TrEMBL record:
Protein name listed in UniProt: histidine kinase
CDD domains assigned to the protein according to its UniProt record, in alphabetical order: HAMP (cd06225), HisKA (cd00082), PAS (cd00130)
One cellular component (GO) term of this entry: plasma membrane
Catalytic activity: ATP + protein L-histidine = ADP + protein N-phospho-L-histidine
Record has Aminoacyl-tRNA synthetase as a keyword: no
Keywords, in A-Z order: ATP-binding, Cell membrane, Kinase, Membrane, Nucleotide-binding, Phosphoprotein, Transferase, Transmembrane, Transmembrane helix, Two-component regulatory system
Domain HAMP, first and last residues per copy: 202-254
Its membrane topology: Multi-pass membrane protein
Length: 608
């Protein structure tokens, strides 16, 4: 029982909820139709009851009148035992009155004297509704419908009684007709009422719908939209309140957008500053985890941003992890950190950075901003500078010391042949110094030297021969096999002096790095569009790490090479610059420990 009650309550709540979702017009239509329907049912029931009561009363009066007249007219035939007269009387009444279903007369003992039934007198009507003390009425349910049996005594019951059956079917028929008419009338009222309710609902809901549409337009971003409802009722007051609220909200939103725009512009400005910084910038939490990095930090780390974010800052500064951890866990929030540290990138390469760190508070948490300035190149240049100074000092001092020594010996030497030999060696040392000074002048002229070239038509094989003649004496005494291979000679447009000078640098380089018993091959070969000039040796070769730097100014493979092999680190730089001035490029093929081949292509005159 309790479960059934709960189920019914749930259904009622659901029905109420569904009705609440109806529109105002629908609710008004349902309300009006419901009122008309309820009033129609109540009014119809009441009128049916009244009409039935009135028609029943009329039927009873009519039946009593008929039975009373029949009783008075039956006295004489009964007393004279005139059965024919009595039969005629009851048949006349039955035929003249449409409501009369049957008529019969019984004597004082209850025996039936006459009746109007065609199939014999029904046994169920014996002794029913006796007329005691006057007329009597009884409602009977028969095969032909409800019949009101009205009895009346003859001579106060001494001569019997008269029974007349009055049918109620015409009352039901009239009531049914009235009910149908009333139902049609109620339906008409419902139709009219629903239209009136629809119109009234439209009048009531129209401003509400306009207000709803205004809210939706406002919600879509049209902050200047106003709801135009010209009414002083509650809806009009609500519309005015909404417009005031919309104005205020629009003002607040515009102010907020203005502030947000300023914040965004400031953020973008700061982001550009951070992104455009040449120094690497990272934001770190108090646990050492990286939360943000700029592009410069990504370049220093040589890794992707997704790999750096979330990683530990200690992984980049493994040698000084303890110092960094000590700073990040320090209670002094005003402390700063600045040191020159080794930085390990993703490829495992070591770089030198100056790391500066300080703490900031952000949303109640302590963050650390780290600025890493990559000074690897500066350190390399400083080392290069030191090597250059040492190298140039050595290279300049050595010929001077040689010249000084031989000149001093020559001044004391009496033997003219020996003195000549000493002076000749002094001249060679002087030539060596002149070559080095010329190299320095070539480097100093830089780009200007390229534009000062005197390009003329000349023999490419002849230029190679002139370069080889410079080293004739050295080639013959070096214990290195030298081979010259020339292809068909071609005339090219070149500066003979400078191109010869460039080739001497390549040949000198090959002699310097090829051990005794080695092989140097110098020559030319035809290629598409020009002539290939090459110097090939079986020397020590070039490592991969040095390959990308060999054309840099003053670059030496290592500090020991300066002492072992000599030179100032300018030869290949000068050669590369001169060859570039001939619309070509100096290239190298080398395998460490097996030798190198330097070559370039001089374009044919027709293609130049």
């Amino acid at each position: 029982m309790k479960n059934g009650s709960c189920h019914l309550e749930t259904k009622l709540r659901g029905l109420v909820s569904d009705i609440d979702n109806f529109s105002i017009r629908t609710k008004m239509i349902l309300t009006v139709v419901g009122i008309i329907l309820i009033l129609g049912i109540l009014m119809g029931s009441y009128l049916n009851l009244v009409q039935t009561s009135m028609m029943s009363a009329e039927l009873d009066e009519k039946g009593i009148s008929i039975t009373r007249n029949l009783a008075e007219n039956s006295i004489n035939p009964i007393l004279t035992d005139n059965q024919v007269r009595l039969q005629w009387l009851i048949e006349t009444i039955r035929d003249s009155e449409s409501e009369v279903v049957y008529v019969f007369i019984a004597d004082e003992q209850g025996d039936i004297l006459v009746h109007t039934f065609q199939d014999g007198f029904p046994i169920d009507l014996y002794s029913i509704n006796p007329a005691i003390g006057g007329s009597s009425i009884m409602l009977l349910d028969t095969e032909v419908g409800y019949v009101r049996d009205i009895s009346y005594p003859i001579l106060e019951g001494k001569a019997g009684e008269v029974h007349v059956g009055m049918s109620q079917e015409h009352i039901r028929s009239n009531v049914d007709k009235f009910t149908i008419s009333l139902g049609l009338f109620v339906l008409m009222l419902m139709f009219i009422g629903s239209n009136v309710a629809y119109f009234a609902g439209s009048v009531v809901s129209r401003p509400i719908l306009e207000l709803k549409e205004g809210v939706e337009i406002f919600g879509e971003g049209d902050l200047d939209h106003k709801v135009m409802i010209n009414s002083n009722n509650e809806v009009g007051q609500l519309a005015n309140s909404f417009n005031d609220m919309a104005d205020h909200i629009g003002y607040l939103i515009k102010e907020k957008e203005k502030v947000a725009k300023e914040v965004l512009e400031t953020r973008n400005y700061l982001t550009k500053i951070v992104s455009g910084s040449l120094d690497g910038i990272a934001v770190i939490d108090d646990g050492g985890e990286v939360e943000f990095v700029n592009d410069s930090f990504i370049r220093i780390a040589r890794s992707g941003k997704e790999w750096i974010i979330g990683s530990s800052i200690y992984s980049f500064f493994q040698e000084k992890e303890d110092e960094l951890r000590s700073f990040l866990t320090s209670a002094d929030r005003n402390a700063t950190f600045m040191k020159e540290l080794n930085f390990t990138d993703m490829d495992g390469r070591l770089k030198v950075v100056i790391l500066s760190m300080g703490s900031v508070e952000y949303r109640g948490e302590i963050k650390y901003v780290a600025v890493a300035k990559d000074i690897t190149e500066i350190k390399r240049l400083e080392q290069t500078k030191a090597n250059i100074i040492a190298n140039i000092s050595h290279e300049l001092r050595t010929p001077l010391n040689i010249m000084k020594g031989y000149v001093e010996i020559s001044m004391e030497e009496q033997d003219s042949e020996k003195r000549y030999s000493y002076l000749n060696r002094s001249l060679k040392a002087l030539d060596r110094q002149n070559i080095m000074i010329q190299d320095l002048l070539e480097i100093a002229r830089g780009e200007d030297g390229v534009h000062d070239m005197d390009l003329v038509m000349t023999s490419i094989n002849g230029i190679v021969e002139m370069a080889c003649k410079v080293f004739n004496g050295k080639l013959s005494t070096s214990d290195i096999e030298v081979m010259k291979k020339f292809s068909e000679d071609k005339h090219v447009k070149a500066d003979p002096e400078k191109l010869t000078y460039a080739l001497t640098k390549l040949i000198d380089n090959a002699l310097k790095f090829t051990e005794k018993g080695g092989l140097i091959e110098i020559g030319t070969s035809p290629v598409d569009g020009g002539t290939r000039v090459y110097v090939k040796d079986t020397g020590i070769g070039i490592s991969e790490n040095d390959m990308e730097h060999i054309f840099d100014r003053f670059y030496q493979v290592d500090s020991s090479s300066t002492r072992k092999f000599g030179g100032n680190g300018l030869g290949l730089t000068i050669a590369s610059s001169i060859i570039a001035g001939h619309n070509s490029r100096l290239l190298v093929i080398s395998e460490y420990g097996k030798g190198s081949t330097f070559y370039f292509v001089i374009p044919d005159h027709s293609d130049h």
